[in-house]
Amino acid sequence: MEFKDLLASQAALPSIPKVIALLLSELGREEPDLKKVSQLVSTDPTLTMRLLRIANSAQYQLSKKIGSVSEALALLGTNQLRDTAMAAAVAGAFRNVPGVDLRQFWRYSLDVAKLARLLAGVVRLPQPIAFTAGLIHAVGELVICVGMPAELAAIDAEATPLSLKRAKAERRLLGYCYADVGAAFAQSWQFPQAIVDALGHQHAPFENGVYEPLAGVLHLAAWRARANEAGLTAEELVDNFPDAIGLALAIDFDTALQQDAIDWTSNQEAIVLV
Q1: I want to staple 273 with a disulfide (CB 3.0 to 4.6 A). Which of 88, 92, 106, 180 is the partner?
Q2: 233 contact partners, CB below 8 Å, separation of at least 6
Q3: C-alpha of 130 from chain center
Q4: What is the dihedral of CA 55, 60, 64, 65, to 10 degrees?
Q5: CA atoms within 13 A on the CB side of 171
Q6: Which of 143, 155, 135, 136 lies closest to 97 in space, CA to CA?
């Protein structure tokens, strides 16, 4: 399927829900109206459920149960709400994707988001934007799976969905990959341009005169998370380290690997997104 035909498919590239668009617009203001934010969240039962689930999760270890949106918002803050709203909207748009284990997909995506946030801190890039970009960096894969089921067998035969070689296989067989599609998705949903650019260049952040540091961060974060999914040994990690990306960002192998200290996402945590 041609790239333009895939993007024209309503089923493959759904529109952003109106309530989420309004919520993100309000959260993007310099001083969001928290009463309006709370009202908007309350109109979306799925988002409300996910927000309360996060607020009542073990990571906060509260002595009492959070039962309202306003309490959850006070605990989590607007940045956490924005990330949750974006993730909920994207996850809600792809509730049934042929051949994809969505719980594994979102668990992996949360790992990339955490790693991207940590690496962004190392190179002094905005960490909230890096987290959001990491969370949706592979959404183009879902678009391809929904819009091109007939082509999946050939792609899967060369590289599994979370393989380090997936983007290369897609480009060879399709002429484009999940990074290109993900950027188009982010553009259509009016994500910040920095995220759109990072998604579009994450496969090759510094090729052909392009210099996209956030894309480089995404590339390294995705590499590390995919290597973790594949269970690579220490020797295999060394062999597969993207040296050119690390050199451009001044992040060496040891610095990239020290992120091992992160709390890898559990299946239980991933439930909030599926």
Answers
A1: 106
A2: none
A3: 9
A4: 20
A5: 8
A6: 143
- List alpha helices for the chain, DSSP H: 3-8, 18-27, 34-42, 45-55, 69-93, 102-122, 127-136, 139-147, 149-158, 166-174, 178-188, 193-201, 213-230, 234-240, 243-249, 253-257, 267-270
102-131 burial, b at 16+ Cβ within 10 Å, e below that, comes to beebbbbbbbbbbbbbbbbebbebebebbb
Q: What is the pLDDT of residues 16-41, one digit of tens each?
A: 888 888 998 898 888 999 999 999 99
Whether 186 contacts 136, CB under 8 Å: yes
The separation between the first and the last C-alpha atoms of the chain, rounded to the nearest angstrom, is 28
In the structure encoding, which two tokens stand for residue 237, read together?
């990690």
Residue with tokens 């284990």: 101
User: Could you report the per-residue pLDDT of 49-71, keeping only the tens digit for each?
Assistant: 888 888 887 667 777 889 999 99
**Alpha carbon 10 to chain centroid, angstroms:** 21
Judge whether 162 and 223 are in contact, CB under 8 Å.
no
